[in-house]
Structures are given as structure tokens and as C-alpha cells.
Amino acid sequence: MTRAFLGMPTTAPRGVGHLRGEQTFPAAARQALADPQLRRNLGHATATIRAKSAGVIAEVPDWEQLRAAGSAIKADVLARLPELLEQLEDRVSAAGGVVHWAADANEANAIVVDLVRATGNDRVIKVKSMVTQEIGLNEALEAAGIAPVETDLAELIVQLGEDRPSHILVPAIHRNRAEIREIFLRAMPGVDPGLTDEPAVLAAAARRFLRQTFLSTPVAVSGANFAVAETGTLAVVESEGNGRMCLTLPRTLITVMGVEKVVPTWRDLEVFLQLLPRASTGERMNPYTSMWTGVSPGDGPQEFHLVLLDNGRSAVLADEVGRQALHCIRCSACLNVCPVYERTGGHAYGSVYPGPIGAVLSPQLTGVADNASLPYASSLCGACYDACPVKINIPELLVHLRDQAPHPRGESAAMAAAAYAMDHPALYAAAQRATRLSRLTGRRGRGLPPPLSGWTASRDLPEPPAQTFRQWWASR
Amino acid sequence: MRIALFVTCLADTLFPEAAKATVRLLERLGHEVVFPDGQTCCGQMHVNTGYQAQAVPLVRRHVRTFDPFDVIVAPSGSCVGSVRHQHAVVARRAGDVRLASRAESVAGRTFELSELLVDVLGVTDVGAFFPHRVTYHPTCHSLRMHGVADRPVRLLREVRGLDLVELPAADQCCGFGGTFAVKNADTSTAMLADKLRHVVSTGAEVCTAGDASCLMHIGGGLSRSGSAVRTVHLAEILASTEHDTVADERGEQVVRS
Ligand code: SF4
């Protein structure tokens, strides 16, 4: 066991995992916006989930109280995280599991690779997990000669397509069924060459392939939705039953979990298990909820390892405003209501965490300088805050992080000049009169230089009025 | 009632008609409007762009300017949002606790126009006349930050001659978002395109809202696309009377958009 929570909290290391994009958000978004198929897939998928979710949320008379309870429990967890994690470690160990502490992605990957190697296997089955994508575990396993097989249908599509997930819950939301058929034909071992693009046929093909893999692979890797400190119980919720297979069939189970996923008591689960399915898939209850506590002789995995991951979370925790991002239960409701996400899709965010939560979580995990464009990837419309089942004030967080972002030098100078003028009414009035000169920039601003040309590429500027309000008022 | 007008820098500079209409409307309802000297900008642009420290003097100026007044109104949900949700935060982060508490006090007396009319002055029929087909866009800050809910619609329903048509997907952001419209111009434009499509689909002659900023965005898009739909601030509709229409028949504009 390694104890790595020492010293100042650090951010997630570079060169490993998927928290940083290669392009800025505006550049990546431009490509996504130019893809009409992607826009259609996304628009359709998010509108469908939105409507379904709104319907089942409206059935719950105490939804607002549940949200408040979820938020309060998470705030309490973050306030006494070290104590809860130690309690969790005690209980898991007492129940026959082994707990490992990983300060960052590199440590976590090394721990998992060593554990798999020790079993003598060269293949693992995986339950969909954000955190293993965050740390780039699949790449680390492959580099060590171990083949990871994703068993969630959408995740499998992404893996076989050598693609990246673009939605927390529906990783292949950017693919339609014709594209999925092509991917299966190209990359799925033993696939029927007569495959059609009927959803049922595609699902049956995946099922055949996955059944064989489940039955012949003795090691599984999972994430966790929740971990109960008082009992040492881990919980995974899912829809397809692949998770249940991975969590029960293999001999060895390795679970990687972000430290913020712990909850104090079993009772707390009742809040989250009501919030999560309605906010995420729009179901009253998720089809599969698997829970396990350590190992049970003769039943299920006989070896259980829990890897507790920091990877920048302590640094997030240290920021009083920023820490609410750690409340997230990864329901993806904020993605589904976000007008920006709906148009750009998840890849534009460059991180495994897309959408509004990604815009506030990724920059905090990596340090804002490494994801400086993400806090600006929002019109601050507030739809995410209204939708979030644990009441994360994402607009407040975005503004908070913008303040920490490195600013372009020209912009800083302009903002300083503007602030100075606005604090000197005579100068301010002179600047107002100067807007009339903007007629010189061409008809309705079409001759403006960058970055203001970003506005005038698609929108006219108003004609400056003959008189400002304060001139009119003075002349009354 | 004596009401202080917080004009907002945008309305003052580019959309004075919305501000003049606010004055005309409140005076017609029998109230005294004052325009406190020395007001400039609430600092929202600085805060939302990531320059909170530079917003501190602007917050201080705003608080000093408006503290003497019991009731303050702005024809903008977004700027009222800045006063209510950002000023105290900015002051506290700068370590000025006294300013923060004064900012909170001013925020408690500051109202968006439709809130002032319905909640404080208790009117929904303001005696307006506006014989046009109109659709209403609930701007994000009005809708979500303040929950002004159906107040603007209740006010519009009482306007004589006005044919109010519902805007499809009304709660979707128009894509303005201040610096967002410039820093993420492509995404902003994609959002605007959908908003314009919905506005045009209503067959309305006029699209109204409680924020000059969002109207500037929607209006800029309508103008660029050659649409005949005009954008008119809610205050201008509520300030219009039969008298203005007579002017219209003589060939002058009813309201300047
Ligand atoms: S931030 Fe809230 S809405 Fe978004 S994924 Fe997390 S819990 Fe869900």
C-alpha cells in the first residue's frame, strides 16, 4: 500500500490521460460546427433525453428537496474527506479488499498494471468508467501488453472505432447506426459479414462478442459511482447488465475511484439513487445497481482491489468556490441542456469531461492555464445550474475560473482602459460620443478588425443613436 | 414613488430609446424618476471576462451612486443580475467587507423593470397601446437568475392592440453571453441561427425582450439576414400609447428599434 497524500496538493500531470485537448475550445468547436451530421445526431439525442428526463423529474414532488439534500451531503463529504476515506479503507480492508492510494494518473496506472500482471492475464474486461479514461488507463494497459475490452455498448463502439467518447453517458452520441455498422464490420472480431444497421441486429452482434469475452476473461476493471464509508460498500449503476457481468464473473476485480465519490452512510445512497437515474437517463430507476463489500468466499470475485485516485482533486478541494465541482455525480444533465454542448458536441472540450461540468472540472484538475479556453465555453445562460441534481452553480464557477485564466495582453490593456474610463464619468461620456465614430468602421461595423470581427461576421452592429441617454436627460 | 434609474451603459450609449421609454412609462404612471449622476457601468463585462479586480472601483462607484435611493430600476435583467449576484462577491474577494454589505443592501433595492411594475408598483395594465404582432424572448438572466417568470408576458397581455404570439423553444439562449459572442463567435452564431429561425417562424413583426444586449444580438442577426422583423425593448412597448400611433399614421416611426 502506498500513502501518497503528502505535501501541497498538485494538479493532474501532463503527458498522461485525457484532461487536456490539443486545440482551444473555439478552434475545436469550429470543426464540430462544420459537421452537419454531428449537429443532427446531437440535437436529436439531447432533445430526446431532455424531454424524457423532464417528464420523470416532474413526477417527483420533493425533487427540489432531494437536490438540496444531495448538495448538502456532498458538501459534508468534502468538509471531512480524509476522515471518510480512512473509514472507507478500514471497512474495505476488513471485508477482505485491498486499498491502494494513487496521487495521480501515473501512480494509478502503475498500480493497476502491476495488479493485472500479478494475475498472469493479458486481457481485462472493463465497465464504463470516466475515471479510467481520465487517467488513460487503456493506453497504459496496452503499453504493458494487456488488452482492455470495453463492455458498455457505446463505449465498445468508441473503442472499436478508435474514437473518443463525446458524452458522459452516451459516449457514442455522435455516431448514428449506419456508422456503427461500419465500425463493427471493420473492427469486431468474428462479426457476421451480413450485419445490417437495425438496432436489434447491432445489439445482438455486440452481445455475442461480449458474452464470449465475459466468459473467458478472469480480470475486470471498473469505476464506482459511490462508496459507502460506514460499510465499505462500492456501488455501480448501469443500464445494460454488462457491468453486473464484469463485477460478478471474474476472479479479480480492480476498481478505480476518484476520492470524492465516497458518501458517509448507506442511508445517503437513497438520495443519490433517486437523483441520478431521473437526471441522467430519464429513468425512474436505473436497470442495474450492483453493490459489493470486499469479497465473499465462493461468490463473485475472490480478489478485490480499490484504487483511490487524487489526480488534482486535492487542489480542487483547496479552492472554496471551485470545490463544488467535486459534488458531480456524472449524470450528464448539464450536457443535455447546454446550448453550447448541443452544437459543438463533446470532443470540442478536449477532455473526457465535456459540457458545462467539463468546462469547470477539467481546468481545475489540470490548473486553469492548461485549459484556459474552457471557462469561456459558455454563454452563462444558467441552464446547467437549473438542471444539476446536486445544485452545482456552474455559471458562478465559470466566472470564478475566468478570473484565474491567463488573459491575452491586448485584451488586458483594453479592459484596464475601459475600467479606468468607466470610473471617470467625463472620460466615459467622451468615449460614448466616440461610438459615433464607429460609423467610420463601415456600414454597421462590418469593417471592424479582429477580435470584434467575430461579432460582425454574422451580426450587424446597431447604428449609434444621435444622442446618448444622458445627453437627452441633460437637455430635458 | 421616487425611483432611481440605473440606465446601464449599453442602453445609455446605444439604446437610449429603451431608457427614455422607461422614464416616460414610470412618469406616466405617476412616479418621479431621477437619474443619479456619476453612474457608468456595473462592471459585469469585467467580471464575466475574468477581470474581477478591475471591477472593484466600478462596484464601489455603483454602490456610492445608488445607495441614497430606496428603489432602483434598470431596463435590463442581465445588469440587475450583476448587481444582485456579482457585486457583493467581487467586493468580498477584494477584502472589502463593508462594500460587500452595502452592495447587498443596494441589490435588495434594485429591480428589473417587469419586477418593479408587477411586484413593487402592483400594475400589469400600464395603459399601453401597441397594435402589432409581437413575440417575446425571455432572456436567460431574467428567466433563470431572477425568475421574472411570466411577469413580462402578463404586462404584454394587457397592452391594447398587441397580438402576442408564443416563441418556440423560447427558453433557449440566443447565444449572446457578452464576451462569448466574440470569443466563441462560431458557436454563438449557431445558437443565434436557431433563435432567428424560431423568431421568424412566429410571423411576428416585432421581437421583444427585457435586455438590450440580447436584443442587440438578435437584432444584429435579423438585420444581417435581411429580415423585416424589428427588435423593440419591452419598455418601449409598455411606454407606447395611442398618441404614438397617430404619429405612425402620419408616416413616422412608432418606436425606434
Ligand atoms: S455537474 Fe451536475 S448536472 Fe452536470 S454531470 Fe455533474 S451532477 Fe450532473
Biggest chain contact:
A-B, 60 and 65 residues
The rough form of chain B would be described as globular
Q: Unreliable segments of chain B (pLDDT under 50, ≥5 consecutive)?
A: 246-257
CATH class of the largest domain in chain B: Alpha Beta
The whole-angstrom Rg of chain B is 18 Å
Strand order of the largest sheet of chain A: 1-10-7-4-2-3
Q: Tell me the CATH architecture of the largest domain in chain B.
A: 3-Layer(aba) Sandwich
Anisotropy-based shape of chain A: globular
Terminal Cα span of chain A: 79 Å
Provide key terms for this protein.
heterodimer; A: 476 residues; alpha/beta; Rossmann fold; 3 domains; six-stranded parallel sheet; four-stranded mixed sheet; 22 helices; 47% helix; B: 257 residues; Glutathione S-transferase Yfyf (Class Pi), Chain A, domain 2; 2 domains; four-stranded parallel sheet; 8 strands; globular; binds iron/sulfur cluster
Structural features, described:
The complex is a heterodimer of chains A (476) and B (257). Chain A has helices at 25-33, 36-58, 63-79, 81-94, 105-119, 130-134, 137-143, 153-160, 177-187, 199-216, 242-248, 269-280, 313-317, 333-337, 339-344, 355-366, 383-387, 394-402, 409-422, 425-434, 453-456, 469-474; strands at 98-102, 123-126, 147-150, 219-222, 226-228, 233-238, 252-258, 262-263, 288-293, 303-309. Chain A is α/β, with parallel strands linked by helices and 476 residues long. Chain A folds into 3 domains: 12-59 and 333-406, no CATH class; 77-313, NagB/RpiA/CoA transferase-like (Rossmann fold), CATH 3.40.50.10420; 414-474, no CATH class. In chain A, strands 1-10-7-4-2-3 form a 6-stranded parallel beta sheet, sandwiched between helices. In chain A, strands 8-5-6-9 form a 4-stranded mixed beta sheet. In chain A, helix 3 crosses helix 12 and helix 9 packs parallel to helix 10 (199-216). Chain B has 257 residues and is α/β, with parallel strands linked by helices. Chain B has 15 helices and 8 strands. In chain B, helix 13 (212-224) links the parallel strand 7 and strand 8. In chain B, helix 4 crosses helix 7 (97-108). Chain B is globular and about 50 Å long. The complex binds iron/sulfur cluster. Iron/sulfur cluster binds next to helix 14 of chain A.
